[in-house]
Amino acid sequence: MSKLQPYFHSVALDIENCKGCTICIKHCPTEAIRVRDGKARILETRCIDCGECIKICPNHAKIAIADDFDALNKYAYTVALPAPSFFGQFQGPDVTVGKILQALLTLGFTSVYEVAKAAEHVSLAVRRYVEQSPIRPLISSACPAVVRLIQVRFPDLIEHLVPIQAPVDIAARFAKEDIMRKYDLKPEQIGAFFITPCPAKVTALRQPIGLENVWLDGAIPISTVYAKVLRVLPYLEDTPELQEASALGLLWGRASGEEDAVRAPKQVAVDGIRAVIDVLGEIEIGKFHDVDFIECQACRGGCVGGALTVQNPFLARVNLERLAKELPPESSLQLEKSFEERYNAGDYGLELNIEPRSILKLDDDFTKAIEKMELLEKTVAALPGLDCGSCGSPSCQALAEDIVQGLATEADCVFVLRDGVQSLAEDLLELARRVPGSISHEDEM
Fold this sequence. Notes:
The structure is a single chain. The protein is an alpha/beta fold. It has 18 helices and 11 strands. The chain has 3 domains: 11-64, Alpha-Beta Plaits, CATH 3.30.70.20; 69-344, no CATH class; 366-433, Electron transport complex subunit B, putative Fe-S cluster (3-methyladenine DNA Glycosylase II, Chain A, domain 3, Orthogonal Bundle), CATH 1.10.15.40. The protein has helices spanning 23-27, 52-56, 84-87, 97-106, 115-132, 144-153, 167-183, 199-206, 222-232, 247-250, 257-262, 273-284, 313-324, 333-344, 366-382, 396-404, 414-434, 441-444, and strands at 11-13, 33-36, 39-42, 62-64, 77-82, 111-112, 138-139, 190-196, 218-221, 267-271, 293-297. The strands form 4 sheets. Strands 6-5-8-9 form a 4-stranded parallel beta sheet, sandwiched between helices. Strands 7-11-10 form a 3-stranded parallel beta sheet, covered by helices on one side. The protein has a two-stranded antiparallel ribbon with strand order 1-4. The radius of gyration is 27 Å and the shape is elongated.
């Protein structure tokens, strides 16, 4: 059994911008946010770095911690690993995959390696695993936010995750191995940087799941790279020799892209964190048992809807599909041959087991935990059950948990507080009726 690592989160709070508006607490899929003393706080045991709070915060108080271009200076050789969704950020009849890749070289990267190409490898590996495994349904492990969601909310479904590495991890390894062979460089001399659409990918780099050896060295947000590429793109010639991936790999950037490439007999694609939660809940109770494979994407529309993208996700999907029409529709025979060799060598599988993460541990002492559970049930029953969020917790159940853990009090509920004030006012009024009136100064004369 692998040892759980300490928490790292790429989603952070900008306390100065936070207005304590409570909008974020109702949108967090794992109830990881509380508002106390007029400011939000993120509970690290619950956060899955999906970026939903970044998307909806009107005050831009939720931010992503990631790398920037200064990180390239640490390495003698740097390789850009653009996500498939990155190409969907650009539009226009003259925009090509080759031009976008050339733009990354212009910005200072030594070379480029398409994550879309690695996605083709992963598609073949997942297809093979689906054919061989008796577990149904199998769930894609490509979206790190979904994997973390399963760890904290649906731990019984961990065995349903396909134990295949994500395309970006495969891309980083293949790119570095190729560069080391060509230029006789050591791994530490090469910096592999993912151009990422979401903060969950940053977290997956800093705190990998299922991997002991990480080949990726940094993750730069698409939003950081986009404007720089946009400025140089009109002045570049098309360089089709840089482009190697097929349409199958490129279309991983939008919802149903992995599903289309895996081609399991019976499969389902789900996008958007709420829809994913609904489906996972149904799998837990035995539904979807006749489905072979489920693609789950935390972001609406797939990776083109990531929190660190720039373009409207619906338009980005159109852009991707236009670019895909200019590419070979299927993987090359050379890639498929390479896949067979690597699959037989075990290059695609996870190195470590994926472990569950507990989000509600009432106490390390079993007896105290039982007592707290009883108190929790009583506290929930005493609350109004309206889940209004006015208390700074996302639901009455969450507030009850916070109360039991000493992080809040019943008075934080405005309805309990109102009833308490009303009861106190009535007691004071009754007391006033019972106490004799005071004797005035004139009566004493």
